[in-house]
Structures are given as C-alpha cells and as structure tokens.
Design goal:
The chain is mostly beta strands. It has 4 helices and 20 strands. The protein has a 14-stranded antiparallel beta barrel with strand order 1-4-5-6-7-8-9-12-13-16-17-18-19-20.
Length: about 425
C-alpha cells in the first residue's frame, strides 16, 4: 500500500544511493512531491467542527452556544448581531476563552498525545444604542477560527502531523435596525487577518529534521442576523456568516539546511485556504420570566473546502505544486441551552452541544483530529446596574477510529477530552 512515509523513505534512499549524475531532476521531483504530501497534510485544529472556533462568550458556551435567539449581551455581535437592539446606551464587554486541547492516539505506528497546555483566546465587544432612534451600532474583535495543536517532535505521527497554529482575527462593525418593536435586522463587514504556522517532520528516523511554513493574509466578508419576538415567551433568531478565502504569503524552509535533498534553503511560498460560510437558526422559549430554553441548529458549508494548494516551495521549479486533499463534508451542530434566573441579578446556565465531524476517514489528518463530539456546559453570572460578569465551562468528549486512510501511519484510535473556560465582564456607561 502506498503511504507518504513509505514513499518518502524510498525517495531518500534513491537520493543517497545514486551518484550525482543519476540524481536527476526526476528523482528530485519525486522526492519533493513526497515531501509535499507529508508536510502539507495538516492544518490547525478546532475538533469536530473542522477548524472553526464557535465559542465566543461564557454565556454562550455555558448554554451550549444556543444563544442566537436570545443574544442579549454585547457578544450578540458574533452570535446574532440583530440582538444588540435589545441593549441600552453604551456597553463594553471583554472576555477570555481558555482551552486545553487533549487528544490521544493509539495505533500500529505507536502511541502519542498532544500538548494540553492552556491556550488563551481574547474577545472584545462594544455596542451603542441611540435613544429615540431605532438604530444600534456595534464593534467586535474575536477569533471565529483557529487555535493550535502539538503532537511533539518524537511522536510516531511526526511525518503526518507534528504541530501547527492558526490565528484568525475578525474585526466586525455592525449596524442594527429595529424595524418593528418585535423585529430587528443587522449586518456588517468582517475584516479578517490570519497567520498560519506549520511544522512537519520529514523522516521517522531523524527527529531533528522538519519542514516549516509560516505565512499570513487578509480577507473581507460579512455577517448578518435577524431576531423576531412575536410573543413575550417566544423568540426566533438566525445568523449568517459569509465564506472568506485567505491568500497566505510567507516562506517555507527545511532544517537542517544543506545543498542536498531533502534539505533546502528558505523560499517564498503562497497558500490559499477557504473558510466556509455557515448559518444558524434558533428558537427561544421563556415559559416564565425566570426560565429561558433555547435550541439552535448550526450548519457549516464544509463541502466547499476540498483542497489546499501551496505554490513557491523548492520543488515548484519542477512544476509540481503540492495539493492537500481535504474533501470535507458539510456538518451540523445541535445546540441546547437553559437559563435560570436566581434573583438579585444572578443566573445559572446549562447547555449541551452535539457536533458532527466533517473530515472523511480516508483524508483524516491528526493535526485536525475531527470527530463527533459531545460538549456539556455550565455557567454562572450576574447582571447589575453598571457591571455584568459571567463565567462558563464546557468540555469536549469524543473520538473515532481510522482504518482506511491514504496514509497508513494515521490509522488507529483517537480520543479527545478538552477542557475550556470563559470569563467576561461588561461595563455599562
């Protein structure tokens, strides 16, 4: 059976055993095509949702992200921007999402575990509602995609997945209009900056060699929302975010650097990655003023993410651009949340998410250990006259078995258990 590691080993043997005259461009082409298959078969993680990061507020995550039909704090800019018409005056909210991403692997190649060090992702939202006018304005900075994953230098998966990080920051101004007392709509552009870093082992027998890519890029998109509350007990919400494509410009290099393959000096490299559109539909039911139940369905158009092509790596001279096949499939997240008011401004949230995986087993890569996940959540908080605060926790539990992957090293059992915390405070001017 063909595998990237086996092919790389054969190519390395050819480059070492043949003299300099026999070491022709065909051998170099074969080697670099193989390195491409190994090196670029990875992208930073988000677990069960491709590389999305849908957790943007403690009240959201503790309600299972079922918040689009409630959207009654400044994080509505992300969850459903139409919700900011419910807010009075000027409000500023700052939060910090902290996640420990832990996945284990067990297979014929051996055993491995990712680095579970906490990663911090900040969030910022500000809103302004104008008295006696049906308009509200908002501005948010958040990270709808990203995080990182590190399997370590000595993992048996190093030639398939070593480590990677993805930063994707969105600046999102919003204008919302209360068309009727019961109906609001909103829209605004998203200005998105992204930086990607990848490091991949070249060989299984030398833990000191690796390939590195680093690049960044910019893209613009938009998001929009609608919130309809025909009755004091019922609300309906929807949120849409457009697709964006980031054109990453940067460089790639191998280490160590020598005149002989597979090690080459740094070259300018370009890569193109599509971030898909997604839409959320939600229903909120409040049987009494002290209870709020909500159900959301979140769909992501992963079918549009088929491959990643890189250009300008050393083997580009041989007209062989590496292509990473992803062939993702569109998937759903099913989200349920409940809020109980406790008096004196205090509240408690409970939530649950079921997230479908998007990565076919054949093209699964451990740098994005996508699997079906259950995410239970819990949270507390208080809403006051000038200050609000909230704290939320959720975990992700899941896993899958891979047995028919194009890279046989990847075949095995993956188990995920992530812990995440979110804290936020709001000040009302």
């Amino acid at each position: 059976m063909w595998t990237p590691l086996a092919e790389l080993t054969r190519a390395l043997a050819m480059s070492r055993n043949q003299n300099s005259e026999v070491r022709s461009w065909k051998c170099h082409r074969r080697l670099w095509l193989t390195v491409a298959a190994v090196v670029f078969a990875g992208w930073p993680e988000a677990r069960g949702v491709g590389f999305r990061l849908p957790n943007q507020d403690p009240e959201g995550i503790s309600r299972g992200n079922a918040f689009a039909a409630t959207a009654d704090n400044p994080s509505a800019i992300y969850y459903n921007p139409a919700g900011i018409t419910q807010l009075e005056g000027v409000q500023v909210r700052a939060g910090l999402y902290m996640i420990s991403a832990d996945t284990t692997f067990s297979g014929a190649a051996g055993k491995a575990e990712t680095d579970s060090t906490l990663q911090a992702v900040p969030q910022f939202y500000a809103t302004l509602s104008i008295t006696n006018l049906p308009l509200s304005f908002g501005f948010g900075i958040y990270a709808p995609y990203g995080l990182s994953l590190d399997w370590g230098d000595h993992s048996p998966l190093r030639t398939a997945a070593q480590n990677g990080s993805l930063i994707y920051a969105s600046m999102n101004p919003i204008v919302a209009w209360k068309v009727l007392p019961s109906l609001s709509i909103a829209a605004g552009p998203t200005l998105n900056y992204s930086q990607a870093k990848l490091q991949q082992g070249l060989t299984a027998f030398n833990t000191a060699d690796y390939f590195t890519f680093k690049g960044d890029g910019f893209a613009a998109g938009f998001n929009a929302g609608i919130l309809w509350s025909p009755h004091e007990k019922w609300s309906f919400g929807a949120n849409y975010r457009s697709a964006t494509t980031i054109e990453y410009d940067g460089d790639s290099h191998t280490s160590p650097t020598t005149p002989f393959p597979p090690y080459f000096a740094s070259t300018s490299t370009h890569g193109s990655v599509k971030f898909p559109q997604y839409v959320v539909g939600a229903i909120s039911f409040r049987p009494t003023p002290d209870w709020n139940f909500e159900v959301d369905v979140d769909w992501t158009d992963w079918d549009s993410v088929n491959q990643i092509v890189f250009q300008g790596t050393p083997y580009h001279a041989f007209k062989a651009d590496p292509t990473l096949l992803l062939n993702y499939t569109s998937s759903f997240m099913y989200e349920f949340g409940a809020t109980r008011r406790l008096g004196n401004g205090y509240f408690m949230n409970l939530g649950l998410i079921y997230s479908e995986n998007s990565s076919p087993s054949k093209y699964f890569n451990p740098i994005i250990p996508d699997s079906n996940l259950w995410l239970p959540g819990i949270g507390f908080g208080r809403r006051g006259v000038k200050w609000d605060w909230a704290a939320g926790y959720h975990c992700a539990i899941g896993g899958r078995s891979i047995d028919n992957n194009v890279n046989s090293i990847v075949n095995g059992t993956y188990k995920t258990f992530n812990n995440a915390f979110n804290l936020a405070v709001t000040y009302k001017f």
